[in-house]
Write a structure and sequence with these properties.
The protein has 2 domains: 152 residues, VC0802-like, CATH 3.30.2130; 167 residues, Rossmann fold (3-Layer(aba) Sandwich), CATH 3.40.50. The chain is 32% helix and 25% strand. The chain contains 10 helices and 14 strands. It has a 7-stranded mixed beta sheet. A 7-stranded mixed beta sheet has the order 10-9-8-11-12-14-13. Strand 6 and strand 7 form a beta hairpin. The protein is elongated, with a radius of gyration of 23 Å. The N and C termini lie far apart (53 Å). The mean pLDDT is 95. Bound molecules: S-adenosylmethionine. S-adenosylmethionine binds next to helix 6. The site of S-adenosylmethionine has 21 residues, from helix 6.
């Protein structure tokens, strides 16, 4: 049966997420701010959860309706036949996003949806589901925009950027989904050398290794919300996992390196690499940026230096950005370098002409991802 789905993604990543979902088999793609709508069968829903490197959650919309205020919301949610998704012995949680001038507090919007569902259950069965916000049997998502709302079942549960391989993080780690998106924007396909000389807990080199080895990021998770749905097809899920495992490469086509001045974060990167099963494949070491030499004739550097929001002070950081430019220019001829920063003034300190500048959000912070071709 073909259903409609909606993948939520970070702002600015909609177009590359659409390309990814299409490559996984999604049909009739439609991008919107913050997500990509697509169609497909249940196997596709499972496959996108298992393999997407960019999506946060895959939602399955079950109703769209006019929704100006709480009364309308309650009435429309009660119209849905909840017994097909949820019996009173199973638990429930509701997440709300968006809003309008009368539904302007997501907590109360979620509460109203929960009330409508459990009141409908009480009328039908004389009893109701309990709420379990940490591990519900059914996770419902309500999205309000203007005077309309979309009600969906959330098939992912915990956001997919939490791959499960990274309990150890430094002070300002990139989300795994953003790291994967930067690799896509740099057109990294695993066939050239990769280096992050400011690697922190190793998110960029580790996501590069998963991509280069064709390792599905969902293989590290043992829980997805769809596993508790009444129609969960365990056999289909096992088949999709087996296919993903069979398609993994055993050796990296080109080397992947990460280094950082802070030995503590390097130890985190090493631990995360062990969790990913790539510790013998990706090399991490402890080094000052100014001591780095190009480990091969050509390759791709991607890094996100501190930009004064969470780490370091802007004035001191100017020196780091100047050094980055000098190291690129003097030691990495033949390479392409990419820098993600949320501070335009600091980016200028690199002192090299960028060949591309892509606007990207790191959480809520507007950033720029700049490309430098090093001749
Ligand atoms: C924003 S963090 C990178 C986070 C990383 N992408 C992650 O996901 O964990 C910047 C890193 O640059 C490192 N760093 C700052 N100055 C450095 C220098 N001069 N040489 C080497 N590393 C440096 C810091 O130790 C920090 O780990």
């Amino acid at each position: 049966m073909v259903c409609e789905y909606f993948a939520t993604v970070a702002r600015g990543l909609e177009a590359i997420a659409a390309t990814e979902i299409e490559s996984l088999g999604g049909k009739n793609l439609r991008t919107e701010v913050g997500g990509v709508g697509f169609e497909g069968d249940r196997a596709l829903l499972y496959r996108v959860n298992l393999r997407s490197r960019l999506a946060f959650r895959i939602l399955m919309p079950i109703a769209e309706f006019p929704c100006r205020d709480r009364a309308m919301l309650y009435q429309e949610v009660q119209r849905i036949d909840w017994s097909q998704y949820l019996t009173p012995d199973r638990t429930l949680a509701v997440n709300a996003t968006g809003g309008n001038d009368r539904l302007n507090h997501t907590h109360y919007t979620a509460l109203e949806v929960k009330n409508a569902i459990v009141d409908a259950q009480r009328e039908e069965f004389g009893k109701r589901s309990s709420v379990d916000i940490t591990d519900p049997d059914l996770l419902v998502n309500i999205y309000v925009r203007g005077d309309r709302a979309v009600l969906s079942l959330d098939s992912s549960g915990t956001s997919l950027h939490r791959r499960g391989y990274r309990p150890a993080v430094g002070l300002a780690p990139l989300k795994e989904t953003l790291a994967a998106a930067l690799l896509d924007m740099a057109d990294y396909r695993g066939d050239v050398a990769f280096l992050d000389p400011l690697c922190g807990s190793g998110t960029l080199p580790l996501e590069a290794s998963l991509k280069a080895l064709n390792i599905a990021p969902g293989l590290f998770r043992d829980r997805f919300a769809f596993m508790k749905w009444t129609d969960f097809d365990r056999e289909l899920w096992q088949q999709l996992k087996q296919t993903a495992l069979a398609e993994q490469k055993t050796a990296l086509p080109a080397p992947i390196w990460g280094s950082d001045r802070d030995p503590k974060v390097v130890s985190h990167a090493l631990e995360n690499a062990r969790n990913c099963g790539v510790s013998g494949k990706v090399r991490f070491w402890h080094s000052e940026l100014e001591d780095i030499e190009a480990p091969s004739d050509r390759g791709i550097i991607i890094c996100n230096p501190p930009y004064g929001e969470r780490l370091g002070k802007v004035r001191e950081l100017g020196e780091l950005y100047r050094k980055l430019g000098d190291v690129f220019k003097q030691r990495f001829k033949g390479w392409k370098a990419y820098v993600l920063t949320g501070n335009k003034k600091l980016a200028k300190q690199i002192g090299l002409r960028s060949s591309r500048r892509i606007p990207v959000y790191n959480g809520a912070l507007p950033c720029v991802f700049s490309e430098y071709e090093l001749y």
